[in-house]
Amino acid sequence: MGHIGAQTPASGSRFGAIRGIPGSDSRPWGPHHRRPMQEWISKAAALLEALPYIQRFSGETFVVKYGGSFMDSPDPAVRHGVARDMVFLEAVEINPVVVHGGGKAITRAMEAAGLKAQFIQGQRVTDAATVGVVDQVLSREINPEVVQTIQSLGGAAQGFSGTDLFTCRKLWLRDAAGEPVDIGYVGEVTAVDTGPLIDCIRQGITPVISPTARGEDGHVYNCNADVAAAMAAIALKARRLVFMSDVPGLMRDPKDPSTVISHLSVSEVPGLKATGVVDKGMIPKVDSAVAALRSGVEKVSFVDGRVPHSVLLEIFTDAGVGTEVVLD
């Protein structure tokens, strides 16, 4: 399918207003600006808190699994919030790489096509008709929309169909008796063509990738976006991997947001699986996090995409948000 779209920021200062240019200086002085001075001091304090992180991560690659209900919000400010975070990362010389999801949009498109969504062990059963819908929605609808949103906010982005970058093997599930279960064209990403991604990063362009892949048989496969993001992070030797979803992080009690585990070591994961804290949809996320950490990614974070600027809060503040996972 090739590249889905690219654009570089408009010429001029990447940081916006430039002192000395008429109309560009928005300093809050004068009789019509009565905001309390403390508010401006607080803004300066936030910038200073972020400074050491900006210095530490300059030139590094961060992979972000971009997904959650915010993508379906009717409010443009909510839909565009994460894209604005990606533009901020670009502006401070951090290289974001985005792998997006789109499960709800796929289900809606299937219903419109008269296809019934079926899930086994949390995996979408994907026959030939379904994989066509998946590829259309992920690579030709959601992907260009994410790219366009980043561009509209002054960032630079280029879209890629996952089939142009990811190779996969067919995923087989196991039933209670240990027998294989065929769920169709669902794959596990096994290899990443990093060349086009590195070209983008060198040019200051954010790659935006759909979670599809090409199988060994040449077919298009639907892939778990969390696994795809982790494989991209490993292949690119990324510094950080951030998973976005609709929960505040990894919680000891899924019904109680106050039980978020703020810090998790890899050695604690087996125990959390045994007690059911990590189950269902969290299993591929946590397994992908562990694989990424063991392959050299410094830290993996689980953040709530519904919280405004959760990516920036996790990366650039001392407290962070959500759950951070590290090696022992």
Overview of this protein structure:
This protein has a 9-stranded mixed sheet with strand order 1-6-9-3-2-12-14-15-13, with helices on both faces. A 4-stranded mixed β-barrel has the order 7-8-11-10. 40% of the residues are buried. The protein is globular. It starts with a strand and ends with a strand. It has one domain: Acetylglutamate kinase-like (Carbamate kinase). Helix content is 36%, strand content 24%. By secondary structure, it is of the alpha/beta class.
Which helices and strands, and how do they pair?
Layout: E1 3-7, H1 37-57, E2 61-66, H2 76-91, E3 95-100, H3 103-112, E4 119-120, E5 123-124, H4 128-152, E6 157-160, E7 166-174, E8 180-192, H5 195-202, E9 206-209, E10 212-215, E11 220-223, H6 225-236, E12 240-245, E13 263-265, H7 269-274, H8 282-294, E14 299-304, H9 310-316, E15 323-326
Parallel strand pairs: 2-3, 2-12, 3-9, 6-9, 7-10, 8-11, 12-14, 13-15
Antiparallel strand pairs: 1-6, 4-5, 7-8, 10-11, 14-15
Helix pairs in contact: 3-4, 6-8
How many domains? The number is: 1
User: Which stretches are low in confidence, meaning pLDDT under 50 for 5 or more residues running?
Assistant: 7-24
Shape: globular
Radius of gyration: 21 Å
Number of H- or I-type helical stretches: 9
Helix content: 25-40%
Question: Main sheet?
Answer: 9 strands, mixed
Q: Could you give the order of the helices and strands?
A: EHEHEHEEHEEEHEEEHEEHHEHE
Mean pLDDT, to the nearest integer, reads 88
Relevant terms:
single chain; 328 residues; alpha/beta; Carbamate kinase
